[in-house]
Design brief:
Layout (H helix, E strand, L loop, with lengths): L11 H20 L6 H15 L3 H28 L3 H31 L1
Length: about 120
Amino acid sequence: MATASLHSAPDARTGVKLLLVGVFIVLAAQLWSAIPIAGAIALVAWGTSLSVSRQAGLLVLAAVVYAPLGVIAVMSQVDLAMGAESLAWAALAGLDAAAAIVLLGSLARQTGEFWARD
């Protein structure tokens, strides 16, 4: 999904599926605190962007909401990874943060390209 162009063929159904997966992961993390959520927040950001990509005003709003939320999630995940006593958990949290960085960075790039075209 990260390599596909965000705005070449916006699909609201795909956006809703990504939103649901991300929300499910965040809800699961409330029940089991060992589940990292930075990647889930990035999935929610992708889902939202796909769902509103044809409405520039809502896309701007999504960017304003998810940019700081994504940064905070990644920073928190890295902080948890650095303080973890288990190497396996630290690696999982670090990979989750890295995946979120890649997803959010790609989303920011593609959204910027979209705004530059309009």
